[in-house]
Amino acid sequence: MELSAADLAAIRLTLELASITTLLLLVLGTPLAWWLARTRSRWKGPVAAVVALPLVLPPTVIGFYLLVSLGPNGYGGQLTQALGLGLLPFTFAGLVVASIIYSLPFVVQPLQNAFAALGDRPLEVAATLRASPLDTFFTVILPLARPGYLTATVLGFAHTVGEFGVVLMIGGNIPGQTRVVSVQIYDHVEAMEYAQAHGLALSMVVFSFLVLWALYHFNPQGGRRG
Amino acid sequence: MTPATQPSILARFRLGYAGFALHVDLSLPGRGVTALYGPSGSGKTTLLRCIAGLERSPDAHLQVNGEVWQDGARFLPTHRRPLGYVFQEASLFPHLDVRRNLEYGMRRVPARERRVSLEQAIELLGIGHLLARRPDRLSGGERQRVGIARALAVSPRLLLMDEPLAALDLARRQEILPYLERLHDELEIPVLYVSHAPDEVTRLADHLVVLEAGRVVAAGALGDTLARLDLPIRLGEDAGVVLEACVLEQDPVWGLARVAFTGGSLWVRDAGHALGQAVRVRILARDVSLTLTRHEGTSILNILPARLEDMAEDGHPAQVLARLSVAGSPLLARLTRRSVHALGLHAGMPVHAQIKAVALIG
Q1: Around A169, how many Cα atoms within 13 Å sit in the side-chain half-sphere?
Q2: % of chain B exceeding 90 in pLDDT
Q3: CATH of the domain at A136
Q4: Mean pLDDT, range B272-301, rounded to an integer
């Protein structure tokens, strides 16, 4: 079993997509998770529900609405065009946007739990020790929420690697641009190339296993607290 | 200094939750230890948190030694207030070792405002051997000592302590109390000390504020406030007075020392204090009995002539609490109503106070 150049391109594209998506999700997810963990606003419930939607919706539903809204007649599409970005469907950038939405709960929820578990005390202690809120975030919250960040990173990355339905809807199947591993496997199977499909599929299995193993190894209780 | 120019803390707060309201207007001395005393739920911790800015009271005025921390719309956030705060649980940062916990606050204070050095804080609390340890490798008492040192290392202009000993067992409390006394003796930082333990209050405080249901029921110098007849009910078995005294003579044969206070002197167990050293003695109301004439042939060492000033109801209908004056110094005595009747006691009467036990504190 040997991986072809096209297979390797798909793997590289997948890793690139997952890395960029995870990085953006950690940056965007942190304030959102912080707000969800600490707010007493009545909007907390609705916002939390929206964040969790990708957990329950079929990926094709997400992909369908993204395709419609980011298309030439959708609000999103009109916005990206007005900004001079062109249309996002069937581009790598479109895939990134879709992946962010699709993997959002897998990053936000572990962070939210980690923030909530910290409670008020470390923040109050830091304030009495002259640390401003931003200072406190980087010197106290971030180190204490490290297990949550590890979980969020691994889950966000792994979940993006494993997406298929959303990609197919909004990304299509353009080699080197939107053809990720899961789509490539589908293509192999369609073409009855079972050996090639097997090679890629097995790589995915091994990869996923290693990622989860690492997660449980470094983070046995899903969050240690001193 | 006259009282008007003496540095002081002015605190007025109004704050309401469901089932609880804090409503205080206090003027506290800007030096020494002020104990905020009261049962749990009396609002003492809430008051401390308001002063720290951890709790926001909409209608408030707070001024500390001339600086306004809160007034109307002006609200200095906690991290801009030059205070130190010791929480009930030491709340050390678990991701930092002891040294970096101590440095955390100190580094955020401009060098020119540092008056307590790290070495001084470490030495005062005796934690030099713990610096490389992680908080989870410390005992409860050690953790709290580090917590206190960490608060001191920010050179606070006001030190707030929220029941720092409450989470510790008796042995650990005995371990820490001497360190707290050293703070009191060696640093010029005013301290607000929340406690519901009478022994801590009598040992450490110079000034006492008694809170109940969110209101101040008494405030004043420790000795005066403790001697008030309307408070001892709340102190129960711990009702009594504290007198400032100094060691006058030692009797090595019997292991006793004589300490003098304004108005008289007392024999106490010699605790090794040097001659002339200032000490505090605590005399509980239940350890004082009265006689009309001076008894001979008694085992009681300390019998002082006194004047009966006033009497008030005590917790139980059988009991009466009497306030005496020993040439100006107050004493409290817990008597039965029957004895009051049998001896014909009334205000203004000369009596002899027989003191069964005197505790030397600090």
Answers
A1: 22
A2: 66
A3: 1.10.3720.10
A4: 91
